[in-house]
Amino acid sequence: xxxxxxxxxxxxxxxxxxxxxxxxxxxxxxxxxxxxxxxxxxxxxxxxxxxxxxxxxxxxxxxxxxxxxxxxxxxxxxxxxx
Length: 82
Fold this sequence. Notes:
- The protein has helices spanning 12-47, 53-81.
- By secondary structure, it is mainly α.
- The protein has one domain (11-81).
- Helix 1 (12-47) runs antiparallel to helix 2 (53-81).
- The longest helix is centred in the middle third of the chain and has 36 residues, at 12-47.
- The model has no long low-confidence stretch (mean pLDDT 83).
């Protein structure tokens, strides 16, 4: 069970930990997306199938919340550094 706390209430160490977590998740999704792109192009050339282009359209949408959270954490950390 988790509870929502605003970014202003968290200590700097937790902000760094969360930012690094979301950075890792975003990088992992990016690597997965590049692999699916490569597979889609391969299957398009060899088997003339377009089935793998569906995940190509959906994966960036699933990455969006992670990227937004990562951005918000980075902004909060920069604000606290000043």
